[in-house]
């Protein structure tokens, strides 16, 4: 009986496999359910505060909406107006200048600052803290300090007889300078972390071959931290198109639009002119620019096989 | 103490629900919710004592204080969510129009008849409080443009308060030659401040009749009379009369300008009546000096414009939330806040509160009040001709363009013709979309 009811010998391992497989798939399903259970609150919050508002912003960019009550569908009218709007072109151009400034000045300062720190043994931590400190100070505090320092009534502006924030030509570089003062220390710390991951053997070998510090920096350090460098470049472009706080605190986009950037234009259109629909279109253009930059980076990253 | 998982969950749920239930309770307990924002603690304390706790109506008022710079956004968000205070405070008619259009505000006609607001409040104020013919708000505070000066500075240089453009320009020319700032002006703290001076130029050069006609859409903003007004004002900037120089204008802060007026480095300030409280820390005992200030009505810039034009602005309005559970009590409280002249005068005297547009006489003020304020508000109550502040009577987008693009005129980026043509185009669109706030005729505060 037992022989008659027993499964064939060849079938036993298969059945055991099937049972183990069922157990494994049950386990996997349970794990997946638990994982999703943990993920759900995050997805819910994300849908509520990121995805939902983003989709609404896309919708409102096609409407005439004052930010209160109902919106009236106007199709592409906001976008058509946008590209004929001198204020938009002016703000976009300032964002381009701002991006170029931040891709060059703080990146170069950050690289050389970090490289200099790798060459010293004493007080390295002190310098790191000193460089990083302005980054953690609230932007409103930093802006207030520099506003007083540069003031044409009591500060450096009075001594040099230059009105930095009142001048049409100097206002934008001045705001960028103040923002950079708080920003470049962050780049130093990130670049330093990347540089500390470079094998010391490479530097020893290069030194034996007679390479000086600059040659070592150019031929070893830079290529070794390229992914970090590129990533920070990407983030710089994105952040540059989102910059708002220093501009708003120091000049509110003035004098006479000399420091207007897309975000201050968006703010003014939404909250002063009560044109939330048009402001949404500005926001969508800003997001598209960032999206294009990220897409370009992903393509390059795939081609170059970067890890970051 | 060990807490089981079940008890922990129950306690957590209860803790999370407590504030929710508490807030529900506070909203539905028959009381009135009022959201206020104040210039300083003294003003807030005064309002709480005299305007909240002192109300003995059919419902108790609970005041929540919000930050001055965010109360408008907070109110907007709350109204959109179908909640918010029973009384809705707004920064002016343009916001009221948007709220009324969205159905957030209760029409006030029945309450106006019940409490006699037609006779208690100035007719211009009620006219400016209508949207599509319906009364939807009451002005909670009104303001006017004025000339502020330091009498000692004028006396020192042998000048008198100007009563016309010729006298004003003569003083400015002389003051500039002496290295003084003729008009203390700047927009570093508030970019929109440029519109104060555009308001001055339009109403006192073009005149209130021309402005009223343009606001009705009968005269274009490109009319030569407006172009001349803007050219005149822009010329004052080019001569360094406004803020010392064009680039200084963009970095002059209000504290520095008040201090310059007190020290005699600046001669005049053309500003709003709100400055009568802001200026106090820079003069006399609080500043440790013996400087004093006084004010005068703004003068005409052209023959044919009335000698005294009072540019009126509405700084705040109050409406009843359409979702209020107790609109009758809200109207009763609104009446309490708005209509008693003595209460308004006391607010001016003791807390520098802007008054509601009721008729004020000298007898309404307490004995302790600053004589300059009595003079200001009694004259204002008897004004024969009113002008139009841009932030009250211009639609929102036109107003924003008006001050942002005026800065481009004074820096030479934009010609006056292009400036006015752009303004006219935006205004026409907003007029067609019925976004222009109603403006009373320039006939004063007649009831």
Automatic annotation (TrEMBL), chain A:
Q: What subcellular locations does the record give?
A: Cell membrane
What keywords tag this UniProt record? Cell membrane, Membrane, Transmembrane, Transmembrane helix, Transport
Q: Where is the composition biased (Low complexity)?
A: 1-16
Region spans: Disordered:
1-23
Q: Which InterPro entries match?
A: ABC_transporter_permease, MetI-like, MetI-like_sf
PROSITE patterns in the record:
ABC_TM1 (PS50928)
Q: Where is the ABC transmembrane type-1 domain?
A: 92-297
Primary localization: membrane
Q: Which domain of life is it from?
A: Bacteria
What is the recorded membrane topology of this protein?
A: Multi-pass membrane protein
Residue stretches spanning the membrane: 32-60, 96-118, 125-146, 181-199, 220-242, 276-300
Q: By its UniProt entry, which SUPFAM superfamilies does this protein fall under?
A: MetI-like
Q: Which Pfam families does UniProt cross-reference here?
A: BPD_transp_1
Belongs to which family? Belongs to the binding-protein-dependent transport system permease family.
Listed name of the protein:
Carbohydrate ABC transporter permease
| Record organism | Pseudonocardia aurantiaca
From TrEMBL, chain B:
Localization per Swiss-Prot or TrEMBL = Cell envelope
Q: Which domain of life is it from?
A: Bacteria
Q: Which UniProt keywords apply?
A: Signal, Transport
Where is the signal peptide, in residue numbers? 1-22
Q: Which PROSITE patterns match?
A: PROKAR_LIPOPROTEIN, TAT
- Entry-linked Gene3D superfamilies: Periplasmic binding protein-like II (3.40.190.10)
Is Cell cycle set as a keyword in this record? no
Q: What protein family does this chain belong to?
A: Belongs to the bacterial solute-binding protein 1 family.
Q: What is this protein called?
A: ABC transporter substrate-binding protein
Query: Origin organism of this chain?
Result: Pseudonocardia aurantiaca
């Amino acid at each position: 009986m037992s022989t008659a009811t027993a499964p064939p010998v060849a079938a036993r391992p298969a059945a055991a496999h099937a049972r183990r497989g069922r157990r494994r798939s049950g386990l996997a399903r349970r794990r997946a359910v638990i994982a999703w259970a943990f993920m759900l609150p995050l997805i819910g919050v994300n849908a509520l505060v990121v995805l939902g508002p983003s989709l609404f912003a896309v919708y409102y960019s096609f409407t005439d909406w004052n930010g209160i009550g109902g919106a009236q569908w106007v199709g592409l009218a906001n976008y058509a107006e946008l590209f004929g709007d001198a204020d938009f072109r002016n703000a976009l151009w300032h964002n381009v200048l701002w991006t170029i400034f931040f891709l060059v000045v703080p990146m170069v300062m950050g690289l050389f600052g970090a490289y200099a720190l790798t060459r010293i043994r004493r007080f390295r931590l002190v310098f790191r803290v000193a460089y990083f400190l302005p980054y953690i100070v609230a932007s409103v505090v930093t802006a207030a300090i520099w506003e007083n320092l540069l003031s044409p009534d009591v500060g450096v502006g009075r001594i040099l007889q230059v009105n930095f924030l009142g001048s049409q030509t100097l206002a934008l570089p001045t705001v960028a300078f103040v923002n950079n003062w708080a920003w470049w220390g962050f780049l130093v710390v990130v670049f330093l972390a990347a540089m500390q991951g470079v094998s010391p053997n490479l530097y020893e070998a290069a030194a034996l071959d007679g390479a000086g510090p600059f040659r070592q920096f150019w031929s070893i350090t830079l290529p070794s931290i390229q992914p970090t460098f590129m990533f920070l470049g990407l983030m710089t472009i994105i952040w540059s198109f989102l910059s708002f706080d220093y501009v708003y605190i120091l000049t509110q986009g003035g004098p006479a639009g000399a420091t207007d950037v897309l975000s201050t234009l968006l703010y003014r259109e939404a909250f002063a002119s009560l044109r939330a629909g048009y402001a949404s279109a500005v926001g969508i253009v800003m997001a598209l620019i960032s999206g294009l930059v990220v897409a370009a980076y992903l393509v390059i990253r795939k081609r170059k096989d970067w890890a970051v | 103490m060990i807490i089981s998982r079940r008890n922990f969950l129950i306690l957590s749920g209860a803790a999370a629900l407590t504030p929710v239930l508490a807030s529900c309770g506070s909203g539905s307990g028959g009381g009135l919710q009022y959201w206020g924002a104040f210039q300083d603690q003294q003003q807030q304390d005064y309002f709480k004592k005299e305007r909240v706790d002192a109300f003995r109506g059919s419902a108790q008022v609970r005041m929540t204080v919000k930050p001055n710079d965010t109360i408008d956004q907070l109110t907007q968000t709350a109204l959109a969510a179908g909640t918010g205070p029973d009384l809705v405070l707004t920064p002016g008619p343009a916001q009221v129009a948007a709220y009324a259009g969205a159905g957030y505000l209760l029409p006030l006609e029945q309450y106006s008849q019940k409490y006699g607001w037609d006779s208690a409040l100035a007719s211009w104020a009620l006219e400016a409080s209508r949207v599509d013919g319906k009364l939807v708000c009451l002005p909670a505070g009104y303001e006017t443009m004025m000339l502020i000066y330091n009498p000692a500075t004028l006396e020192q240089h042998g000048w008198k308060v100007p009563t016309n453009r010729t006298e004003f320009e003569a003083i400015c020319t002389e003051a500039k030659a002496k290295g003084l700032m003729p008009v203390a002006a700047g927009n570093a703290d508030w970019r929109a401040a440029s519109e104060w001076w555009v308001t001055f130029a339009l109403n006192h050069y073009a005149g209130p009749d021309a402005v009223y006609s343009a606001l009705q859409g009968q005269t274009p903003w490109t009319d030569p009379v407006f172009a001349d007004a803007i050219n005149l004002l822009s010329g004052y900037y080019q001569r360094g009369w406004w803020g010392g120089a064009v680039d200084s204008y963009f970095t002059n802060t209000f504290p520095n300008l008040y201090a310059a007026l007190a020290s005699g480095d600046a001669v005049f300030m053309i500003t709003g009546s709100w400055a009568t409280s802001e200026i106090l820390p820079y003069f006399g005992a609080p500043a440790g000096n013996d400087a004093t200030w006084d004010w005068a009505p703004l003068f005409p810039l052209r023959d044919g414009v009335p000698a005294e034009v009072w540019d009126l602005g509405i700084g705040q309005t109050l409406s009843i939330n359409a979702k209020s559970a107790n609109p009758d009590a809200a109207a009763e409280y609104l009446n309490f806040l708005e209509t008693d002249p003595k209460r308004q005068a006391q607010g001016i005297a003791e807390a520098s509160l802007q008054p509601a547009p009721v008729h004020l006489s000298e007898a309404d003020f307490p004995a302790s009040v600053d004589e300059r304020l009595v003079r200001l508000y009694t004259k204002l109550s008897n004004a024969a001709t009113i002008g139009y502040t841009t932030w009250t009577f211009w639609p929102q987008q036109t107003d924003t363009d008006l001050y942002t693009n005026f800065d481009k005129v004074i820096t030479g980026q934009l010609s006056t013709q292009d400036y006015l043509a752009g303004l006219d185009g935006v205004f026409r669109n907003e007029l067609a979309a019925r976004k222009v706030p109603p403006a009373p005729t320039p006939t004063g505060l007649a009831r």
